[in-house]
Amino acid sequence: MSELNSSIQPLRWQAGKLVMLDQRRLPLEQVWLEFESCGDVALAIRQMVVRGAPAIGIAAAYAVVLASRYAWAKKGTIWKQAMTRPLRDLAVSRPTAVNLQWAINHMQRRIDALPNNQQPEAVLLDAAKAIHDADITDNKTMGRLGAELIQPGSTVLTHCNAGALATGGFGTALGVIRQAHSEGKISRVYVDETRPWLQGARLTAWELMRDHIPCVLQADLAAAALLATGKVDWIIVGADRIAANGDVANKIGTYGLAVLAQYHQVKMMVVAPTATIDWQCESGSRIPIEQRERREVTHIGQHRHAPYEVEISNPAFDVTPAELITAIVTETGVVKSPSAVTMQSLRERRNTI
Ligand code: MRU
Predict the structure, then answer these.
(1) Does ligand 1 lie within 6 Å of residue 6's CB atom?
(2) Any idea what the CATH number is for the domain that residue 240 is in?
(3) Is 240 one of the catalytic residues?
(4) Residues 166 and 249 both lie in one domain
(5) How many angstroms does the Cα of residue 237 sit away from the middle of ligand 1?
(6) Does one domain contain both 216 and 346?
């Protein structure tokens, strides 16, 4: 049997440049942008050219390669010091997705191991490509593990975009959906539009339709009435940061869905690589939540619909307490009924592999 793949790869390294699909323009236009500096990648992350926790981490790893090229060309044997500032700016480009800091830390360890008089680009590029390849492999492992939890004939609901576009190229939540659909287990996917940035309407619906997975797009507020019909078997989402006790930060609206899911006895699956777990963070209350610009709420596209100068709240993420989650699926294994204790056993399992 041929290997299951997504038809989309949101970023690639080509001819010495990072090339990324501009996710702000989807689905109406497919525009690829080229990046040759770490600062430009940091700006692209902030402006959502690339988004989704794992994809942000991979873009950051390639940005470190670009920073090292510049530092070596400008500063020679003191290239390591010259990287401090660009890497610090990169690290703060988005605050909630911990994969960003994870990838920078991973690359920093490679930097530390290199001698000052060695041209760093080739070694760091190998490391960035390894992060990228591992993400796709891990997505596929999570896809298989998550699909095992799904019964044939299931209907699922997803929120935001945790697909190929949000990762190295397969997807976390959509990876499970892709795999379960290929096994004939999923008959329909409900897609929340995901206000205000519309990741569901613009990205997830596009991704699923391209790969011929039956989907229905709905306004976020339709979820409660849908769950009340008893038609949905699983809510499946990704994560931006998972605390050590299993609390999950994900796209704003996820917490509301989890509360609804408990009331209507619908199962809630979170799919994320172990790079998304912040073991230093004891609970969800410690996770920094990004506040994004007011325009995302006052406008749709170029069209303003809110009064001028109205006060705005625009948190990009919320935190779902662990007790509302049925299972967290990682590449190392599945944590059922997540808690500090069950998460710790995942950590120990991971350290013995
Ligand atoms: O603001 P975004 O689009 O970066 O938010 C993305 C999400 O919340 C995703 O669900 C999460 O990053 C997981 S992506 C595999």
Answers:
(1) no
(2) 3.40.50.10470
(3) yes
(4) yes
(5) 9
(6) yes
Residue among 251, 277, 317 whose CB has most ligand 1 atoms within 8 A, to mutate = 251
In the set 138, 233, 240, 278, the catalytic residue is 240
pLDDT per residue as tens, the chain (353 positions): 678 988 899 999 999 999 999 999 999 999 999 999 999 999 999 999 999 999 999 999 999 999 999 999 999 999 999 999 999 999 999 999 999 999 999 999 999 999 999 999 999 999 999 999 999 999 999 999 999 999 999 999 999 999 999 999 999 999 999 999 999 999 999 999 999 999 999 999 999 999 999 999 999 999 999 999 999 999 999 999 999 999 999 999 999 999 999 999 999 999 999 999 999 999 999 999 999 999 999 999 899 999 999 999 999 999 999 999 999 999 999 999 999 999 999 999 877 65
Q: Is the CB of 54 under 6 A from ligand 1?
A: yes
Q: Residues 309, 292: one domain?
A: yes
Encoded amino acid at 174, one letter: L
Residues 213 and 333 in one domain: yes
Q: Identify the residue whose tokens are 């080739």.
A: 122
Pocket residue to mutate for ligand 1, from 21, 51, 94, 203, most atoms within 8 A of Cβ? 51
Domain containing 292: what range? 142-351
* 60: amino acid identity, one letter: A
Q: How many domains does the chain have?
A: 2
ipTM score assigned to the predicted complex: 0.99
Paired with 216 in beta bridges are 190
- Is 97 annotated to bind a ligand? Reply is no
From 114, 137, 160, give the residue that closes a domain: 137
How far apart CA 267 and CA 234 sit, in angstroms, is 5
Which of 137, 165, 199 is the last residue before a domain boundary? Answer: 137
> Which atom belonging to ligand 1 lies closest to the Cα atom of 51?
4
pTM for this predicted structure? 0.97
Identify whether residues 303 and 242 lie together within a single domain.
yes
